[in-house]
Structure formats: structure tokens, C-alpha cells
Amino acid sequence: MKMSPVKISFVRLSGQALTYLVVFLPLAARSAEPAVDYAIVVTGGELLAGAYADGHTHFLTRTLRPLGLRCTGSMCVDDKRADLEEALRFAAGKASLVIVTGGLGPTDNDVTREAISGFTRIELKEDPQALQAMARRFGVTPERLRPNLRRQIHVPVGGTYLKNAQGSAIGLVFQADDVTIVALPGPPRELQAMVRNELVPYLSRRFGTREPGCSLTLRFVGLGQSQIDQTMEEHVPLAADVTVSSQFEGSRVDFTFSLPDDSPRDRARLDELKQKILKHLGDHVYADEETSLEQCIVKLLQKRGATLAIVEAGSGGTLAAGLAGADDSGRVIAGAYVAATGEQLRRLLRIDERTWQRSDTGTGQIELLASTAAKTTASDWVIAVGPPRQDAQGGHYLEVVFRPPDGPAQTRRIETRGPSARSRLSTQVLDLFRRRLR
Fold first, then answer.
1. What angle do CA 250, 190, 417 make, to 5 degrees?
2. Residue 115 and residue 341: Cα distance in Å, rounded?
């Protein structure tokens, strides 16, 4: 097939030190099939600093192209209102649909909603339904929601919003006379679920784009992306019409397999593909739907009719925070204790100092914390994470105790290193616990 050339333009915004790379397809590259043009604006100073790669453009273009949407360009800008508004002016001149990612969080640095509101002159207003959903998510009444969280439920009066099943930042749709601007949350797990479940149906209603074909998402833990790729290449060959996309975050990897059509035969093909993958990688698959690892743990505890208490030192409360964000977590989480040291945890749990000193330093004290938490909260299971330690070779590790309803406690030693060690630790501990609950 003859390929049309791609024009690459470097655009330096007035008064800015930053150079933006914008890739635009000329008219000659367009197919004869009618399509909706859109542009992407990815926000994030960490992307410009090289801390992370931009995966949003890749995901959006691969997801929206089969639906009849054509990306005319993508650019990355800093988390500054002036930069974003300048980017919006540029993108709106190229396409009738602009998709912005990031900057919808609760902090003062999250300026996307205000920037788009100022650019489109569409006012923001708190939405009652979004307010109730936010309150339910955090288990409080609307009046008790913190002001910074309530910022996230201000929606455009001229437009609509997109629900977020994975987080608290809802998506926003600004419908101006000559352009529609969609703002999506930055975290990949939140953005991708919102695109599939909320944005795609909206675009079909708004622009008459095609509906997507059928797809299958498998969520992996405990294996790297390249290892999953290699296993599938060796044991599960894919048909030519199967599109594969993947994304990873916090040592968790999602693979999505898509077909262009959605017929009973297509769904049967994906189910057959799923069974082949499970045969070789099933031990590492924790869900085949938009379910987080934390939500998987909550469901397994509910299935057993069991409760869980959490004691954390070295993990900094990440286990409790992650599980607390899952639906129905209040029914299974019996209590959580978080402190910086084992001694502080001892005082929180009111363990006698003499008893504490008689326990072996290290594992014995962590097991004592676990058993005391089980009695205090009347919980069936306990996960206790000890404080950071260093071995003779200078390596860093944590000891994690899993205390079951019956039988002896089990201890695992987990190495901790690298800038994302805490995120990997949380995933590893939850995966170990998932395997014990199955």
C-alpha cells in the first residue's frame, strides 16, 4: 500500500522556553472514508522531564482509529494554565474534537478544568449526582467531603461528564460552538477504563462514530510485560485480525485483545483465546474485566465471609489505602494500623512492653503485632508488614506476615529497591494474599 508522507512540525510557543513536537497528517494522507478529526493534548511536567513516556497517545489512537476517528496531531505540554490554553488554541484550529489528558486531580497543580473553562468560556458548576457518587466512594456524607475533593465534581454547564470507575476524578466534556473538548484523568488505569466505558459511547452519540467490536482484557500480576509477550508468542499464536494493546502500572500488566466486529462467533473466538492464555499464564491472571487487584481481594474475602486487619510499617499505609478505595471494602476491612516503626505500632495496639521485648526482634515482633490485631479487631485474616531492614550485604527488605484464621502464621521476606519499590511491594503483598484466598 502506498504510504503518504507525514509532516513533522516543531512549534515554539511565544514566550516559552519549551519546544513542542506536533505530528500532523496532511490531507493527502486521509482515506476516502468519512472520519472525525481529533487532536490530543497530554499534560504533565514529568513527561517533559523524561520521567515517564507518553502512553496516552498510543492508547487513544489505537482505540479510536477503528471507530472512524482520525488523530491529526498530539502534543505534550507542562502543567501550567498558560501553556495549556495556548495548546488548546493550536489544537482547536486543527480539529473539531480535542482530547486532553491529566490535570483533573484535587491539588492546586491540577489546572486542566479551569484552563478549558477559561478557553471555552463555559462555566463550571458542582453536579449533584457526581457529588453523591463521590460521597459514596469515600463513605461519608456530601457535607463531610473535603473541599479539594469537591473540586473534582465541578462539571461544565455546557456539556457533560464521564464517570470514573477506577478513581475519583471524573472526565469532563465541554461542548463549544466550534469544538468539543474532552478532559480525561492522567493515571493510565483510570483513563483507559473511562475511554472504553464512557468516552466511546459518548462519541458514538455525539459524532455518529462506529461502535467498537468485541474485546477481552486480562489483568496480570507477578510477570513482566515482555515475559507475557514471549509466552504468548511461543504458545498462543494470534490471528491476523486480533489487535493487541497493553499497559502496565505498579507491577501490574493489562493485555487487551480486540476484534473489529462483535458477533457471537467473534466472542467465541475471544473466549477460546482466553482459555489458551489461562492454560499457560492462568496463575498470574487475577481478573478478566475492569477489576482492580484490590477489588479482587475484597471479592475473595466476601466469598469466604471473612474479614481482614492490616498492620503496616514499611509499606507506609499503601495496602490499607488501596483496599479502602475498593467497593464494599467496609464490609471486609476490620481495621488498619499504620506507623513508621514497630515500636509505634506496639503502642497503637497497646502491647505490653515486657511482652514486646520478650519476642524475637524482627519476625517474632511482627507476628505479635499480627496476633494482637486479630484479637483487637476480631478479624479472620491479618497482613502485617514490618519496618524496613538491611541485610549483611547492604540489601533492603521487609518481612510480611500473613496470619490465617486457622493454622500457623506465614512469613515472607520481600526485597525493596528502586524508586517505585513501595508500589511494587503493595502489588506483591496483595498478590501473595490473593493466592492464599483462592
1. 10
2. 43
Q: Which residues pair with 384 in a beta bridge?
A: 311, 401
- Dist CA 115 CA 195 (whole Å): 21
Here the cell at position 331 is 464490609
Kindly state the average pLDDT of the residues 148-173: 91
Cell numbers of 9, please?
512540525
Q: To which residue does cell 479502602 refer?
A: 324
3 state SS of 77: strand
Is pLDDT larger for residue 321 or for residue 359?
321
Q: 46 is written with which cell numbers?
A: 514529568
Phi-psi region of 14 (alpha: psi -120 to 50; beta: other; left: phi over 0): beta
Per-residue confidence (pLDDT) for residue 26, from 0 to 100: 41
Average per-residue pLDDT in the chain? 87
Q: Which three cell numbers stand for residue 190?
A: 483510570
Share of the chain above pLDDT 70, in %: 90
Question: Grid coordinates standing for 71?
Answer: 488523530
pLDDT-above-90 percentage for the chain? 59
- Spell out the residues 6+ positions from residue 345 whose beta carbon is closer than 8 angstroms to its own: 311, 313, 337, 339, 369
Residues in a beta bridge with 71: 38
Residue 420 binned pLDDT confidence (cut-offs 50, 70, 90): low
Cβ neighbour number for residue 402 with a 10 Å cutoff: 17
pLDDT at residue 91 is higher than 60: yes
Question: Residue 398 in 3-state DSSP?
Answer: strand
Q: What is the pLDDT of residue 27?
A: 36
For 179, the grid coordinates are 469544538
Residue 311's SS3 state is: strand
- When pLDDT is cut at 50, 70 and 90, the band that residue 87 belongs to is very high
Grid cell, residue 211, equals 461502535
Dig out the grid coordinates for 348 from the structure: 497503637
Alpha-carbon distance 299 to 361, whole Å? 35
Find the mean pLDDT for residues 277-289.
94
Q: For Cα atoms 83, 86, 88, give the angle at the middle one, nearest 5 degrees.
A: 110
Unique residue bearing C-alpha cell 459511547: 201
Between CA 29 and CA 27 the distance in angstroms is 5
Q: Beta 333-338 vs 396-403: how paired, if at all? A: unpaired
What is the pLDDT at residue 145? 86
When pLDDT is averaged across residues 113-132 and rounded to a whole number, the result is 94
Q: Domains along the chain?
A: 7-207 (3.40.980.10), 215-287 (3.30.70.2860), 293-437 (3.90.950.20)
Degrees to nearest 5, angle at CA 26 with 21 and 31: 125
How is residue 242 annotated by DSSP?
-
